[in-house]
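Good day; I would like, with your permission, to put a structural problem before you. What I wish to show you is a protein chain and, alongside it, a tokenised description of its three-dimensional fold. Please examine both parts with care and let me know of anything in them that strikes you as inconsistent. Thank you for your consideration; the sequence and its tokens are set out here:

***
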Amino acid sequence: MNHISRSLQLFFIDGRPDGMLTAEVFNWTGYVLRLPRTQLKEGLGRPEARFTGVYVLLGEQDGAPLAYVGEAEDMRERLRQHAGSKDWWDTAILITTSANNLHKAHVRYLESRLIAVAKDVNAMGLENGNQPSGSSLSEADTANMESFLETLMMVLPAIRVDNFLSKKREVQTASTEKSNVEDTHFVCSRARDNLRATASFIGGEMIVLQGSIASEVWVGQSHSSYTSLHSDLTASGTISKGVFTTNYAFSSPSAAAAVVLGRPANGRTEWKVVGTGQTYADWEDAQLAEVKQ
């Protein structure tokens, strides 16, 4: 997919990085309000809180992250209800449009799609029970809502809402997506345990390819930051019996190497260029040397 550069405007309403903020994108009708529960009174007093929209509640229950996705024609009234009936959430994300031109069918569709995405990503638990059926939209309205959702998927991670951010990649991505390093592939292996993973570096991501063999268990220090990542990928089925079932994008070579080897690892030295044996670190140095002064 060819991504188009976008301009995101964040407005910190009270000047606090952890307080209320709004997020808008140039030439996008969407309007997102992040509202800490501690500022619920002030947030629900804002006019957009009364708009028709979709909302996401974020928090923890029994020490595990939890979310709830809902829709309402008046989000203020619905959040008032949730404030009394749900005590686990501490942040609400309100999603609407600046002109309040979403209607019931629109938000029911968005609610259903957001729940489906969250379940697929499986980054945190969902309090939602059954998958809502969504709504029947015309072909044109469906296309509009998918376009709306595509931009929303860029906005949410920018305001630290990552539970809709998928790291799965289509099987053909690594071989067909255009990139200035599209012919460079890497391998990470440990012969004694028959571990061997291949990866491509595309768009700033280390993408471990489907079929790669990884450690079935974490054998490194349990307090490593990658312990839970290995566990989550195994629990979600991304790694099944030590095999990657899909292409998966990691934020760094070290994260990818750690999951493959089942222990903390320096990805800059563990990943080698296929065919040359050059380490990722040396390959990166060569790439930087090509940058014109």
About this structure: The chain has two domains: 8-158, 173-289. The longest strand covers residues 53-61. The longest helix spans residues 139-158. Confidence is low (pLDDT under 50) at residues 173-181.
